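User: I'm writing a tutorial on reading structure tokens. Could you give me a worked example: one chain, its sequence, then its tokens, then a sentence or two explaining what the tokens reveal?
Assistant: Sure. Here is the example chain.
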Amino acid sequence: MLIITRREGEKLMIGDDVVITVVEVNGATIRLGIEAPRALPVYREELWAAVRDENRAAASAPVKLPELPPKD
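And here are its predicted structure tokens:
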């Protein structure tokens, strides 16, 4: 893990097209601004984990397909 110290208004670059800006520091809370291409999804970790877990559950659930009628 890379640990970087930044102050309000300072930025981080991830690759060529993702910019993270420290917008506000208020006690233990930090507000970040994220500029990224629309094609790159950006999620909070807890939301990403919930979506991932739900996708895994759906993928492992047995699927009962309807039976085709017999051919004549």
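What the tokens reveal: The longest helix spans residues 45-60. The chain has one helix and three strands.
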